[in-house]
Amino acid sequence: MSKVCVFDHPLIQHKLSVLRDKNTSVKVFRELVIAGKKLAVVPILRAGLGMVDGMVSMMPNVKVGHIGLFRDPATLEPVKYYFKMPPDIEERDVIVVDPMLATGGSASAAVTFLKEVGVKHIKLMSIIGAPEGVKRMQEDHPDVDIYVAALDDHLNDHGYIVPGLGDAGDRIFGTK
After folding, report:
1. What is the pLDDT of residues 140-157, one digit of tens each?
2. Number of domains the chain is built from
């Protein structure tokens, strides 16, 4: 059973009262929510790009890195073709974004590449996950929390999430 912690420290309660105030500006609200965090959003290209604008609009001071991966047709393993990060990436809390957590291969590889450059605090955010991808991430990177809007049933024979929503990259960019 998970724990629930309620923080009742007076400084936290003060900030909460400002957040609850309907007259608090968007700017002040955003700053209170993410104050003190050095954040980076790292989409897995290309489908992850579709999640970046929304995250940047919620967290205007976030830095954005990019990881490009493709699946080697012979080995079916992810291959890195692009990796560009903010210069202080190892000091940031990183949120890796990819709409679909299917097999977990790309997400696991992306996290490995980030750890290789010194990133210590990583979270994974997807829209839909499959049990197979969650299992792979938990085995490969038990220190990485996973956030999904839905955990679907399984993967089909082609490695697509069922019921899923199709190829997220194609749907985001209108390429199919």
Report:
1. 999 998 988 888 888 888
2. 2
